[in-house]
Specification:
Length: about 180
C-alpha cells in the first residue's frame, strides 16, 4: 500500500446521476506481503483474506505472495471506492476471487455489503502485477433500478458514462492479458 489518499469520485454537478460512479486504485509491493507472511505466517493471512482467497492463492502447498498482493491491492482499492476506511470493515469482508486466468470479481460481505447495497453498485475490477508491484483499479457503477423502462435525460447520460467506463475497463484488462501472454 503506497498511498492512502481518498477515493476519486466522478463529479456530478447537476445531480444527474445518483449515486455516482466511484473509483479506487492501489499499489502493493509483493515483497511487503512476502515479509509479512514470513514474519507472521498464517495469522497474517487469516486476518486479511477469506478462506476462498487463501485456497485460490495456494500453489504447491504454499501461499503465493504475488496473488495475495494483487488481492490486497483490490481490497484497498475497494475501500477507497466505497469510502469504507471509517466503517469498521474486516478485511475478509472484501473477497477477491478468480484472479488467475479469469475475470476477477469482488464480493462484499457484512458491513462492506451494507454500504455498497445502499448505492446498489455493480463492481468492476482490473488487476495487474509487474515485478515487485501489484495494482488494482476498482470501479463501482450504480445499477439502474429493476423494472425501470424509461430513463430521464440525466439517467441516459449516466448509462452512457457507465458504458464508457466498462469499455475502458475491458480495454485495460485486454491490454494486460496481451502483455502477459
Amino acid at each position: 500500500m503506497l498511498s492512502s489518499e481518498p477515493v476519486f469520485t466522478v463529479s456530478n454537478p447537476d445531480n444527474s446521476m445518483s449515486p455516482s460512479v466511484r473509483i479506487g486504485i492501489d499499489l502493493v509491493q509483493v515483497s511487503a506481503i512476502e515479509r509479512s507472511l514470513a514474519d507472521f505466517g498464517a495469522r497474517f493471512a487469516r486476518r486479511l483474506f477469506a478462506d476462498g482467497e487463501l485456497a485460490d492463492s495456494t500453489v504447491d502447498g504454499h501461499l503465493d505472495a504475488r496473488a495475495l498482493a494483487t488481492r490486497f491491492a483490490a481490497k484497498e482499492a475497494t475501500i477507497k471506492a466505497f469510502d469504507l476506511a471509517e466503517v469498521g470493515v474486516g478485511w475478509p469482508q472484501i473477497e477477491v476471487s478468480e484472479c488467475d486466468g479469469a475475470a476477477a470479481r469482488v464480493r462484499l460481505h457484512g458491513a462492506a455489503a451494507g454500504v455498497a447495497c445502499a448505492g446498489v453498485y455493480e463492481i468492476a475490477v482490473a488487476l495487474s502485477h509487474d515485478g515487485d508491484l501489484a495494482c488494482a483499479i476498482v470501479v463501482a457503477l450504480p445499477r439502474a433500478p429493476a423494472g425501470k423502462r424509461s430513463m430521464r435525460r440525466g439517467e441516459e447520460h449516466a448509462a452512457a458514462r457507465r458504458q464508457r467506463v466498462r469499455c475502458v475497463m475491458r480495454t485495460i484488462t485486454s491490454n494486460e492479458n496481451r502483455r502477459h501472454d
